[in-house]
Amino acid sequence: MTEQHRLIPITSASHGVDIDLVYATDRNLTGKAIYRTAHCLLLEPAEAGLRRAVEIARGMGTTLRIFDAYRPPQAQQVLWDFLPDPTYIADLTRGSNHSRGTAIDLTLVDANGEALDMGTWFDAMTIESEHFHPDLPQHVQRNRLLLLGVMHAAGFTHIKSEWWHYELPGSRALPLIDNSESGPFRLM
Ligand SMILES: [Zn+2]
Question: Which of 44, 79, 137, 162 is the most exposed place for a label (fewest CB within 10 A)?
């Protein structure tokens, strides 16, 4: 890996975030742990954006809770094999921006540590996961717009299909990062 592709560890202590890497648990769409160790990593420019987002979220009394960040290409393969639907899972020839270290899945948590009601759970591969879905109640629309505002102000962009997913603009031009051999990620 070259210096410009450096992955930065994200921790609660260093970044003031909650971290719940669901792919290191069985609470994900596959029902099995995909990551053996729960290391949260982002590419340097995304890490800088996250720091901005943390400050903006803090200004309204909220904390960011991260569900996923860098994802090794092999983990992407596991997800694609489980759900080969390009609406929700980036196929392997295209690759996920998670595997470029520039995408992050997250929500907002209030001052009591309660996640804001976003209408669906993270990784709910349903139409209700789309931003601005008209059948969702107003408080859910507001909560999603709060997260959208925080992340856009911090320099991230959203995708239509998943309220929890944000990424740096132009991510597609960056290389996929295979960190699974030498890095902290080992797959089951
Ligand atoms: Zn994502």
Answer: 137
